[in-house]
UniProtKB/TrEMBL annotation:
Glycoprotein is among the record's keywords: no
One Pfam family this sequence matches: GFA
GO MF terms held by the record: carbon-sulfur lyase activity; metal ion binding
Organism: Dyella psychrodurans
Name of the molecule in the record: Aldehyde-activating protein
Family that this chain belongs to: Belongs to the Gfa family.
Superkingdom of the source species: Bacteria
Keywords: Metal-binding, Zinc
Coiled coil (residue ranges): none
Amino acid sequence: MTMMHGSCHCGALNIEFTTSKSTSEFQPRACDCSFCRKHGAAYISDPKGKLSIIQRNAGALHEYRQGSNTARFLLCKDCGVLVGVALDHESGTYAAVNAGCLDDVTELGESLSASPQRLSPEEKVSRWLALWVPDVVFTTVPQ
């Protein structure tokens, strides 16, 4: 198992991503929607992985929805860094990590372009359920 750590710029949000893949097996998916492009987002995930998003203080996690309002973009309320994206589904919460917020991960493959805006909301959900991390935990740890 590989454990990747990351955070927003100010450290109010921390990421722990556990995967059976090595870092070199990932090719981040660079979403071409205007929101993700403006944030420079490229996502990685593993449908067999586990993701923990830890708030260092209550209220640090800000969520934003756009487009079809299907996904929740996860940003730091204080520094504005986009750490990931989540989908709430009847079977649980699924998520992907913005590779740009990971620490000391230099072996990722070249980013591939992804165009979810060309998909219907149903097609997006189907794609995300197949690709994203199904084991997602949100916690708050007081400083």
